[in-house]
Amino acid sequence: MAEMKDVFGQEPHPVEDDLYKEPMRKRRKSDRDQRFRAFPSVEQSALKEYEKLESRTRRVLSNTYQKLIQSVFLDDSIPNGVKYLINRLLALIEKPTVDPIYIGLFGSTGAGKSSLINAIIQQAMFLPVSGESICTSCIVQVSSGCCAQYEAKIHLLSDQEWREELKNLTKLLHRTEELGREEADAWNRDEAVEEATWKLQMIYGNGAASKNYEELLRAKPKRKIPTSRVITLKAEEAEELSIKLDPYIRTQRRDWDGDAAEMHIWPLIKHVEVTLPKSDLIPEGVVLVDIPGTGDFNSKRDEMWKKQAIQSQREAVLERNEMIKLQRTRILKEKLKRKLPADFKVLEASDLVYTVSAQEYWQQALLTEEETEIPKLREYVRKRLLDKKRRTVTKYVTEAFGLLLLTDSFSSTQNLPNEHLHMSVLRRFAEEKVELLEKAIGQCFACMEQPLQEGVRTARTSYRCILRACLVRSKGNQGFHQTLKAVCLKNGIYASRTLARIDLNEALTQPIYDQIDPVFGSIFRTGKPTGSALMPHIDAFKHSLQEKMTEIGIRSGWKYDSCKKNFLIQEISAILGGLEDHILRRKRRVYESLTASVQSDLKLCYEEAAQITGKKACERMKDAIRRGVDRQVAEGMFERAQERMQHQFQQLKTGIVEKVKGSITTMLTLASSQGDGLYKELADVGSEYKEMEKLHRSLREVAENARLRKGMQEFLLRASPSKAGPPGTSL
C-alpha cells in the first residue's frame, strides 16, 4: 500500500525551459549519437549533418534576436519594420523541430496490434496481448527518447471530464419504473449497463451503481486520485515496467475480485504514454499508437494460425503471403481511388501492404526474420522520419537565410532611385494576383455544389433504411436497451470495447460523403493547377509573384541589392508555406461539418429518447429517434448540413485571401520602408549573415553527401557475397 501511495504522489518531472543554457547544449551533443542508434550508419551520418545545420541555424537566429532586442531596448517606440523582424526571428527560434510521426494501429480485438508493436520494439510481452478475456483497454503511445530508464505516464480524466462521464453513467443506470422479470434480465445483460456498473464499482466500490449522481459526487473514491492527474511509472528494465503498467492498460474479467489499487483507477485513464530508452529499433520521433480493438473478437484466431503453421510448408506460406499482398494492395488502391485523386503519389506506391507476423517473428519456425517483414516495416518507418527531417531542416534553414538577408540589409543598404515607384508597381501586381487567386479558390470550392446536392438527394431517399439498419440487432432488443440509451446520451455516438462503434450521425450522412469524397480529395491534392485542385493555384500565385519581383529587381537595380530581392522571394515562400498548414488544419473542420450539423439538429431528439424508461423502453426509444429524424429531414436537415459545409468553404476562402493580403502588404511595406522612417540604425549583424550564408550553402553539400553515401552502400551490397538462405535451403 505504501508503494502505491508513492506512485500516486509522484508529480511530472519539470522540463528545462531555457534552450540556450550551456549544459543543455552539452547534453544534447553527447546524446546525439545515441539518438540515432536505430538508423544504419549511412542514414546516421545524414541525420547528424541535418541536426548540426538546424542547431547552428538556431544559434545564429538567437544571436541576431538578442542584438535586435538590445538595439531597441530603450526606445519609446519601435519601428514597424523592426517589430516585424523581431517577431519573425522569435517565431523561427521557437519553432519546434520535426513533429513526431504518429503511426496508429487499428483493427478488431485480437487482430494482433499489441503483438506487432511488441515485435517492432523487440520486447515479446511488453504490452498485453489478447487472450480469452484480455486486451488493451486504452490508447497506448510507445516512443523512444533520451531517458535513462523505461518510463510510463498514465494520463487521467480531469475533474470536469469525470463529472460529465459520471453524469452519463448514472443516467444510463437509472430506472424510474419497475420492469418485468424478462425485461429486467435483458436490462442487466446489456453490455452498456455491465460496463457502467463495472466502472462505478471500480471507483466507488460495491453498491455504487445504485447511487445517484449527487450521491456519487459526495462519495470518496476507494483509492487516492493524484491531483496532477498523471501517474508516472519508472523501471530499469522493460519487463519490470511491463509488470507495473499491466494492470492499468489490461482489460480484466468482469468477475475479477482483486483489490489492486491500479485497477481502481482504470475507468479514469484517458491514455498512456510509454517512453523507451534510446532504442536500436524505433527511432526517436516515431510514436506507435496502440488503438483498443472493438468488436469482432474471435477467440479461435490464434488456434487457426497454429493449425496453418503445422500443416503448411515454408513455400506455401510465402506463396500465400504474396497472394494476399497482391489482393490487399488491389483492394486498398480501389478504395483509395474513391477518396483520392488519380495522380496521388500513394496510388503509385508498390509497398502498400506488409504481411507481418509477430508470432512467426519470435518463433521463426517457418520464416526467417526478414521474411516476417517486421524489419521491412521498421525500415519504412526510418525512411519516413529521415525524409521528414530532411524536408523540415531544408525549409527551416532557407527561411532563416531569407530573414537574415533583410536584417543585414537594414544597416547596409541605401534607398535606390525610383524605389517607391517600383514597389508601387509590385504592390499593384500583387493586388491583381490576389483577386485572381480569390476567383480561382471560389471556382475550386464551387465544384462541391453538384456532388453535395446529389448526396443530399440520396440521403433523403435512403435515410430510413440506414436508420433501420443501425437500430436493428440480430438478437432483437435483448441487451440493447441501455446501449441505445448510451448512444443517445452521447448525442448519437457510442464506442465500446466489445461492440462495433455506433455513430448514427455518420451513418445518416454517409450517402453525402460517398458523393463528395472524390471531389473533396481532388480539391486538396497537389499537381498541375487545373480542375478543382486548390494548392496548385496557390503555388502558381507564388511563382508569378516571385517572377515579377525578379523582373522588377533587374529593372530597378536590385542586382546591386540582392538581399532585398532574395528576402522578398524567400518570404513569399514562408508566407505561403504557413498558409498551407492553415489550410490543412481547416480541412478537417470543413469535412466534418456535415456530421456535426446533423448531430446538432438531432440533439433534442437524442435527449428525448434518452429520457424514456419503463416497459418496452427500447422500442419506444427507437420510435422517438425515428420520429425525430423524420421531423428534422422534413424541415431540411440535410440541406442545412449542405449549407453549413458550403459556409465552411466560404470561411476558408475568406481566411486564405485575408492572410495572403495581410502578409504580402506587411512584407512589401517592410521592403520599401527605408524612406518612410520605419527603419532605424540597428546593431551590426554582418557576422551572423555570413554564417547563415555558409549554412545555406551547406544544404546542397549535405544532400550531395547523402546521395554519395547511399550510392556507395548500394555498390558494396551488390559486390558483397550472397547472404545465407532461409532454414532448409543450401547455397
UniProtKB/TrEMBL annotation:
Pfam families: Dynamin_N
Cited SUPFAM superfamilies: P-loop containing nucleoside triphosphate hydrolases
Region spans: Disordered: 1-35
Every Dynamin N-terminal domain range: 103-313
Domain of life according to the entry: Eukaryota
Parts of the chain that traverse the membrane: none
GO molecular function, one term: GTPase activity
GO cellular component: cytosol; nuclear speck
GO biological process, one term: negative regulation of apoptotic process
Bias-annotated ranges (Basic and acidic residues): 1-23
PANTHER family: NUCLEAR GTPASE SLIP-GC
Name the UniProt record assigns to this protein: Nuclear GTPase, germinal center associated
Source organism: Mandrillus leucophaeus
